[in-house]
Write a structure and sequence with these properties.
By secondary structure, the protein is an alpha+beta fold. The protein is built from twelve helices and seven strands. Helix 9 (165-180) packs antiparallel against helix 10 (184-190). Pfam families: Sigma70_r2, Sigma70_r4_2.
């Protein structure tokens, strides 16, 4: 059996697995609760609580991914993960230990559910292939092969340059100031020539239905966005999945979360999340 104290000791790990598997804060929290309900009913001794809990939440996530596939296919516009937003340097007490960037979560989304599970358990949480094989009820050799394939896929597609946080924050703040000031030339200077911007409105709010490519197109798109009339807009510097980003509130409620990838002090990728369903948990934390 697993008591409440043991479960709480592993809650952050469980949330981390579920969130990386699903890209949804709300679904991850649901799966953590479902894991507790299942494990609290186990009456026999559990020799390895961490492994048992990880196995339970991973299999629940795999089941959830199967049902989510059809929903993703019908999604309007680019799909981006729900953001984990905290105050800069929030430190302890948040589920961002070993945080995963939005860019990496998008890459994980391109893996098969099995590849995603093996990658998360092995590369993020350090379980051995033997342990993972037991969790997934598959042969160790097959799981090892899946793991190698997933790791190769991720390495080929993840951002190649990782700017220090202070550079990320400086460039992000400078770009925001240029946007708000309507300084198109400065925006262009801070954007890499091949920059891409994704905006996720889910068909519920205004957002580009296709990625925007190139510095000129991205700059003009963002300049048009910030020029829209808004009720008491406030921009807050925050960490988005452990990286410097921005939260825009309108009339006191979360409206937009944005985060950029930066290389050589220029923005190479921008991800903008506006779907209100994906920001609902932020409104709850601010209430």
């Amino acid at each position: 059996m697993i008591d409440a104290t043991t479960f709480e000791e592993h809650r952050r790990m469980l949330f981390g697995i579920a969130y990386r598997m699903l890209g949804s804060v709300a679904d991850a929290e649901d799966l953590v609760q479902d894991t507790w309900l299942r494990c609290s009913q186990v009456s026999t001794p559990v020799d390895n609580p961490a492994g048992y809990l990880a196995r339970t939440v991973t299999n629940l996530a795999l089941n959830r991914l199967t049902s989510a596939a059809a929903t993703r296919e019908r999604y309007i516009g680019p799909w981006l993960p729900e953001p984990l937003v905290t105050q800069p340097d929030a430190g302890e007490g948040v589920e961002l230990a070993e945080s995963v960037s939005l860019a990496l979560l998008v890459v994980l989304e391109s893996l098969s559910p099995l590849e995603r599970a093996v990658f998360v358990l092995k590369e993020v949480f350090g379980f051995s292939f033997k342990e993972i094989a037991g969790m997934l009820e598959r042969g160790e050799a097959a799981v090892r092969q899946v793991g190698r394939r997933a790791r190769s896929h991720v390495q080929a597609r993840r951002p190649r340059y990782d700017a220090p946080d202070q550079v990320r924050r400086r460039v992000t703040d400078e770009f925001l100031a240029a946007c708000l000031g309507g300084d198109l030339n400065r925006m262009m200077e801070l954007l890499a020539p091949d920059v891409t911007a994704w905006s996720d409105g889910g068909g519920k709010v205004k957002a580009a239905l296709r990625p925007q490519h190139g510095a000129d197109k991205v700059a003009r798109f963002l300049a048009a966005v910030v020029s829209q009339p808004m009720d008491d807009p406030q921009v807050h510097p925050v960490d988005v999945n452990g990286r410097p980003g921005l939260l825009l509130t309108v009339a006191g409620r979360p409206d937009t979360v944005a985060c950029a990838e930066i290389a050589d002090a220029r923005i190479t990728e921008i991800r903008i999340i506006r779907n209100p369903d994906k920001l609902r948990h932020l409104a709850q934390t601010q209430a």
